[in-house]
Design a protein that fits this description.
four-stranded antiparallel sheet, ABC_transporter-like_ATP-bd, alpha/beta, single chain, nucleotide-binding, 14 strands, six-stranded mixed sheet, ABC_transporter-like_CS, Rossmann fold
């Protein structure tokens, strides 16, 4: 289990992190979301020892993290850290051996990832000759090749096509099923919502919301109803008690004062085809808590 407690970091007068805390449990996929400059990358770099915190603590398995522990982590930085002149499979094997793998095991792991991430045909290509999307895949494979105990991935899905996104998602879900905790940052909130067990929203260096998507939905202040009527007179939506958010033909989304009152009035106005609460998307929750 990874535990981050009250991390603080300043750059002169700028506060980059202001008491950031979060916990990632075994087999959990944790989505770290926030605007550019919110503190996601700084937090990850502190976990990996690239930066030193001004205050707070990072613990793994309830012990302070040192170099030996970090060597067992898989890390994908925001910027690519690949050897441009090195061939793809050679590069993966090299990083696997840097993490202590025997040559044969490093090659097996590299070949498996090349196949899983759709890079087999590029295995003997120099990295600099790859497209940006394929370079991203190689960077991801480097983070995975040594079969790490923990994954810290900074924008891993950036620049990937839908097929590559699905391939990577499958690999990450397999790792979490095996008990590996995964932390990844992303601006693709629909992807975070689909994959993650827990989400942390950071703004201006502070964690403003942490929990499962269901828990974050539960704290949403504005509850919305979806009502679909047939056989209703024109203008029926304006007669429902509540604030209308959106209208589209026979469908209306509104914020009600009393859902039962809305239902009674809808039944009086026409035939109720659909009636129920609308679950807010993660993007809506994000805007709400950041604001």
């Amino acid at each position: 289990m990874l535990r981050i407690d009250e991390l603080r970091k300043r750059y002169g007068e700028k506060v980059a992190l202001d008491g950031v805390s979060l916990t990632v449990r075994p087999g959990e996929m944790f989505g770290f979301v926030g605007a550019n400059g919110a503190g996601k990358t700084t937090t990850m770099r502190i976990v990996m020892g690239v930066l030193q915190a001004d205050g707070g603590e990072v613990r793994w398995q309830d012990r302070p993290i040192d170099f030996a522990v970090r060597r067992r982590f898989g890390y994908m930085p925001e910027e690519r850290g690949l050897y441009a002149k090195m061939r793809v499979r050679e590069q993966l094997e090299y990083f696997g051996r840097l993490h202590g793998m025997a040559p044969a095991r490093a090659r097996r792991s590299a070949d498996d990832l090349l196949e899983r991430l759709g890079l087999t045909e590029r295995r003997d290509t120099e990295v600099e000759r790859l497209s940006l999307g394929n370079q991203q895949r190689v960077q991801l494979a480097v983070a995975l090749v040594h079969e790490p105990e923990m994954l810290i991935l900074d924008e891993p899905f950036s620049g990937l096509d839908p097929i590559a996104v699905d391939a990577l998602a499958e690999v990450l879900l397999e790792r979490t099923a095996a008990g590996v905790p995964v932390v990844f940052s992303s601006h693709q909130l629909e992807l975070v919502e689909r994959l993650c067990d827990s989400v942390g929203i950071i703004a201006s260096g502070r964690m403003v919301a942490v929990g499962s998507v269901a828990e974050l939905r539960g704290r949403e202040r504005h509850k919305r109803l979806r009502v679909v009527l047939s056989d209703a007179e024109p203008g029926w939506a304006d007669r429902l008690p509540g604030t209308i958010v959106a209208k589209d033909g026979d469908e209306v989304i509104l914020e009600p004062a009393d859902d039962q009152e809305v239902l009674r009035e809808a039944m009086r106005l026409g035939r109720v085809e659909q009636f129920g609460w609308v679950e807010p998307k993660l993007s809506e929750i994000f805007r709400e808590v950041v604001a």
